[in-house]
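cron nightly-structures :: item 1 of 1
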Amino acid sequence: MRLIIAEKPSLGRAIAAVLPKPHNKGEGFVRAANGDVVSWCIGHLLEQAEPEAYSPAYKQWSLESLPIVPEQWQLTPKAQTRQQLSVLRKLVKEADQLVHAGDPDREGQLLVDEVIAYLKVPAGKRNSMLRLLISDLNPQAVSRALAQLKPNQDFLPLSVSALARSRADWLYGINLTRACTVKGQQGGLKSVLSVGRVQTPLLGLVVRRDEDIEAFVSRPYYEVQAAIHLTPEAPFCFYAKWQPSEACSAHQDEEGRVLNPKLAQNVAARIQHQPARVETVERKQKQQAAPLPYNLSTLQIEAAKAFGLSAKQVLDGCQNLYEKYQLITYPRSDCRYLPNEHFARRQQVVKAIGCHDQNLTDVIAGADLNVRGKAWNDSKVEAHHAIVPTEKASAVNHLTTAEKQLYGMIARQYLLQFYPPFKYADTRVSLIIAGGRFVATERETIQPGWKQAMPRSTAQSQQEQENQPRKLPALEKGQEVWSGDPVVNEKHTQPPQHFTDASLLSAMTGINRFVKNPDLKKVLKDTDGLGTEATRAGIIELLFKRGFLQRNGKNIRATELGRALVNTLPESTTVPDMTAHWEKQLNDISERSLNYEHFMQPMLSQLQQLVTQACNLNVQAFQGIKTEKTAHRRSRRKTARKPRASGSRKKAS
């Protein structure tokens, strides 16, 4: 008997649907006519044991017991899914062949592997286990995947990476959370001070951004624009912006902005009604390929900008589109490329898009399915590929507004792969006026390409027309023109913006911008990331749930509690350097270039130092902080003390 173990019931049912009928449905499994059995986990059936499972002494939170480091790691069955684990125990014993059908990522790999290990499956059966990779729940795609089974041994590094991540996060979270919570209680705080190797650096980003905004002092700066005429008598033609020389550096800030108004006025006076000589004219033709299909993070960022959707709303909507409606491929993907064989199915996918989104009719009409964009590239695809529409063309009703918006975004991005590149020309004119250099630039569209398929709002079109620069005339090097009445613009430096859902996700995916260590910054330039595609939305929501973050309109800001925690913890726990380095090492384990021990040993040494520092936190930082729960309890007590109105006492008693 062949047993296929899926990650979730929805995936299990999708697999069973393509197996020979009739089916015999049991409690937690489906048996096909050919003898194959499909069963499933319900997410993680097992979880890391709590500290008290290792020693009763750990039930009491105390600084003296830290750090807690298990000698032999233990997993315990989750109470709510214990019955399904029993179903799998029986089926695994009966099976001659096991097929691992977890989701195509490192957590999906570990989820089934840890069940097989926990059930003490014999080594021979475990080593012969096959791997089924499914990213599309439609029957044709599932059938294709079943015909392409691979040895599960090929994917064990993914499982080891996920195991290292799970244990390291347990050690980090359990020990630092206990240390901080005990110190917080000593300062009068009643709530748990949760610390995590991803959530706390993310909170640190928000706290420091808030503090930068509060400390910001706006400064005026000045730009000089030369008004260029082709001759002294000719009408105004275009503006050219002054480029300060090195001699002006004493009057500039770190970004090169001129802070001295007298210098700007002096430059303007010198160039008024003066001849100008064209120093250089550079015109470069360029092209820009269509943006690649989405992975989860890019979709979350763009959906936040376009529709104000939170990271969790995007993830939940995509899960429904994938599991419930089978309209898109596996959504928890970090890849933006597609396998070459997927190109052969483009006709069916485009036809399906036409069935589900009438707003894309014109985009479909403009697509050339003979164009093969750079998205199709086997060398860029590993466990999973980009999020794209499936071939399902049957009508689907009752999509929510968010689900329709997300499907439209995913479908449009897929269709862009069949459009030519956007072609344009950039022109840069440099002029010398009274010894100073002035520059004018222009971008000219040669062929709109894929940009013609992008949505354009009326407000956007109007704004572009208003901001349209004057077209540069044909100029030649050495040509004499005329500088008329210049303009001095006084501008003011702007504070950084508060984080939003889009910018916070962008920060998590481009974390190297916030890393302080220059060597690590260089390493992480191409492989950066705080958290994973599957966890980022949950981490953000967790910080809200624990009272560390709050929303102010679209802005995300730290609470008083969040600030106090970040400002008392060791700095290394609140900046992304360490956890970004961890992510790189976990990725290295997945790619077989690092082993488990070489990751865990340095981490344990570092943990000892951090726990020692956390045990010496300044408890006064938490005094007087009102958490949401504390405020709620006080409000209830205050309400209870209010005198009841006459006539209601008897009823109340």
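cron nightly-structures :: done
The radius of gyration is 31 Å.
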